[in-house]
């Protein structure tokens, strides 16, 4: 499974960058991802509402959730959002099959 992970650094996390501007967070993310049994495909720093995005491959959602739990528990990351890729055509197929059984409100 592929996951897209968005997150923000806390004030503590940003302070760590100020103290050590050359700290390689991608390497740190790679190590923690591998320790959880997943693989970091790519990580980028962003401008906007989130500070970083990571693409991760893992066997299940619980792996990604466990990484979120650990990383937010450190106090250096907050607001991690994990989204998993889905087969949109398969979802549409399920919706199409269920459509015959659905009655909109008021109809």
Written description of the protein model:
- With 107 residues, the protein is α+β, with helices and mostly antiparallel strands.
- 42% of the residues lie in helices and 27% in strands.
- The model has no long low-confidence stretch (mean pLDDT 93).
- What Rg do the Cα atoms give? 18 Å
Spatial strand sequence of the major β-sheet: 2-3-1-4
Structural class: alpha+beta
Kindly report how far apart the N and C termini lie. 39 Å
| Alpha plus pi helix count | 4
Count the beta strands: 4
Largest sheet: 4 strands, antiparallel
Regions with pLDDT < 50 over 5+ consecutive residues? Answer: none
Descriptive key words:
107 residues, alpha+beta, 4 helices
Give a brief rundown of this model.
The protein is an alpha+beta fold and 107 residues long. It has helices at residues 11-19, 25-35, 61-73, 88-99, and strands at residues 2-9, 39-45, 52-57, 77-84.
Topology record:
Blueprint: E1 2-9, H1 11-19, H2 25-35, E2 39-45, E3 52-57, H3 61-73, E4 77-84, H4 88-99
Antiparallel strand pairs: 1-3, 1-4, 2-3
